[in-house]
Amino acid sequence: MKQPISPSQLEAAYDAYGAAVYRLAMVFLRQHADAEDMTQEVFCRLFDRSPAFTDEEHKKRWLLQVTANLCRDQLRSFWRRQVTELEDTLPAAPPQELEALSAVLGLPEKYRLPIHLHYYEGYSVAEIGEILKLGQSAVKMRLKRGRDLLKIELEVSP
Predict the structure, then answer these.
(1) Of 69, 89, 109, which one is at a domain's C-terminal end?
(2) How confident is the model at residue 83 (pLDDT cuts 50, 70, 90)?
(3) Domain identity same for 60 and 108
């Protein structure tokens, strides 16, 4: 059931979770402008369609799940498949993290998303399964394979 949300509650939610939503959108979409647009769309959905949340963690999970679903929809869209990528930039990060972040963003999507949610957002295997609509064993396997790919990539890099 839709729960009315006030502008001050929306602002508080954006202050608390806007960065996490943006980071997840960047992991999916890999473009700064697209991630910003997606963040705006997610918070519009919060304003228009938010359910009754049991607690703040429930709200954060809902926002990340909406982000993942909207990003998947955009990646499947006809327009997205017809666009040529113009830039290959990463958001600013300290130099020591840039290599690892670049390696994570270079992973295939099925490994990149669980790795990001686990290591950058701090979600458990069960929570990642809920957000990505996967079983816990699938999440564990993707985390393991993603770590293995990262290990190979980071050991080979100069």
Answers:
(1) 89
(2) low
(3) no
Q: CA-CA distances (angstroms) from residue 158 to 99, 107, 154, 155?
A: 10, 18, 8, 8
CA dist., res. 69 & res. 133, Å (int): 10
- Report d(CA 141, CA 121) in Å as an integer: 18
Which tokens sit at 145? 């394979």
Residue 26, class by beta-carbon neighbours within 10 Å (0-12 exposed, 13-18 middle, 19+ buried)? buried
Are both 121 and 80 inside the same structural domain? no
Summarize pLDDT for 38-63 with one digit per residue, the tens: 999 999 999 988 888 899 999 999 99
Q: Are 143 and 125 in contact (CB under 8 A)?
A: yes
Q: What is the pLDDT of residue 49?
A: 84
Residue 79 shares a structural domain with residue 110? no
